[in-house]
Amino acid sequence: MSTKSDENLVLDVVRGIRPWEDLRRVGLAISFIEGGCNCDGRGTVVATPSIGDLARGIDRHLSNPASDLERWSAVMLAASAVIDFSQIIAREDGERLISALWDASGRQEVDHQVRTLARSLAV
User: Fold this and answer.
1) Are 38 and 78 contacting, i.e. CB atoms less than 8 angstroms apart?
2) How confident is the model at residue 1 (pLDDT cuts 50, 70, 90)?
């Protein structure tokens, strides 16, 4: 059964306020494999973050070690059982943020323009 507190937990993970490990509380089993992340489970809720939510998470994780950004990004991409990015993907600047998740999860540098975009949208 989904609750508003479960949805808020997922959104706080997207925003970078809570650690990605907390997604286990909403039914995901998270494991890392060579070159990616697996999130198994159906989850108890599906949250739809805003572009500002994702931008906040990217901005917060850019100040952390690269390995933190890499793992968080991989989890964001793999956690489709509990995170619905459809509203973000529908926007051009949202596609740029999703692309940054792919870059970071693949150990590539996040483009300076995308860093600036994330900061501007994170307000």
Assistant:
1) yes
2) very low
Question: Could you tell me which of 24, 41, 38 has the C-alpha nearest to residue 71?
Answer: 38
Instruction: Show the DSSP H helices in the chain as ranges.
Output: 4-14, 51-62, 66-78, 86-89, 92-105, 112-121
15 neighbors 57 (Cβ within 8 angstroms): yes
In this prediction, residue 2 carries a pLDDT of 57
Using CB atoms within 10 A of its CB, is residue 96 exposed (0-12), middle (13-18) or buried (19+)?
middle
DSSP state, 15? Answer: T
User: What does the alpha-carbon distance between residue 50 and residue 32 come to, in Å, rounded to a whole number?
Assistant: 26
